[in-house]
Amino acid sequence: MTERQTLLQTINDPEDIRRLSVAELNSLAEEIREKMIATVSKRGGHLAASLGTVELTLAIHYVFDTPRDLLVWDVGHQAYTHKIITGRRERFDTLRQRGGVSGFPKREESPYDTFNVGHSGTSISAAAGMAEARCLSGKDFRIIAVIGDGAISAGMAFEGLNWTGDRKKNLIIILNDNEMCISPNVGALSSYLNRIMTGQTVNRIRSKVKNFLKSIPGIGGQMLKFSRQLEESLKTFFVPGALFEELGFTYVGPLEGHRLDHLIGNLKNVKTLEGPVLVHVVTQKGKGYRFAEDDPSRFHGIPPFDIETGEAVAAGGAAAPPSYTKVFGSTVVTLAEQDPRVVAITAAMSEGTGLDRFAEKF
């Protein structure tokens, strides 16, 4: 697009996107990705996660009445689209610069940023507190928390799920499942969440089970109990949502995270549900930029880079010097080679802390 006004240039707040058709929203998503890639290539930033949540972000703001409805991001690594469409489009090229747009949600920056974040696993607890405050004040707006598949295994996230499921307040949690946090997940919950199937397959299985149960004539008390046990057993085997339903949530999904028509339709239905709801959305980290798709870990937090090659560059276009993280990682490997007592501990991000080589070697 050259001299004529782009679709993105007409978007100043979410009210503008609510007037668009799904086809126009799809075009807007591509323009947002182009702007995001162009900006981060110059400024550095958290690219891969935000590329993966473009459609999801548009769908949330399209369906819900933000900022009256509160949207809580976890960490904020995936919130660049949110910033672009909430009044910060023209300033987005100041990302992570002194006096510019913050790399994370920041209440001082916009009424659409409801919670200052910088650490993972906090969105559910924060949203749960907001839900309690809403009920105490007699208001009825919606609260939506977005959390990733890596962050949901955090202890604070479990506490938030436990509290929310028990209190039965209206609260929507969206699990953004890109099957790839900063480093591969470990642990029992991760293995459980990774049993992902397409939404179409899951719904077909649910439908067949329901039709089969309905076809059994004269179901008595015991048979009814058995049929429910059968349904739950099949659900546990086929659907990743049984855990959340046991915690008191209505589980919806998995949904295709890059199909705006599906996302919008399902979120409209979710908006009418009462009580705590967990919406499971499957996305692709780095979506729309092949280097980020192929190597999402490197493009999780990336310094300035060349768009054509995906390689990091320094000021003036020169090759970037080795980062502090890389120097640290090499040094720790050297020390461990000299002293077998050296042990490395990483906060679930071996590449981000430079300890991936250590993990591979030792």
Give the topology, please:
Elements: H1 14-17, H2 22-43, H3 47-52, H4 54-63, E1 70-73, H5 80-88, H6 123-136, E2 143-148, H7 155-167, E3 171-177, H8 188-193, H9 199-215, H10 221-238, H11 242-246, E4 250-256, H12 260-271, E5 276-282, H13 290-294, H14 324-338, H15 356-361
Helix pairs in contact: 4-5, 4-12, 6-7, 9-10
For this entry, what is the oligomeric state of its chains? Answer: single chain
Number of helical segments with 4 or more residues: 15
The ordered H/E elements are: HHHHEHHEHEHHHHEHEHHH
Mean residue pLDDT: 81
Number of strands: 5
Distance between the ends: 51 Å
Rg over C-alpha atoms, rounded to the nearest angstrom: 22 Å
Unreliable segments (pLDDT under 50, ≥5 consecutive)? 190-202, 232-238
Please give the order of strands in the largest beta sheet: 1-2-3-5-4
Q: Per the principal axes of the C-alpha atoms, what is the gross shape?
A: globular
Helix content: 40-55%
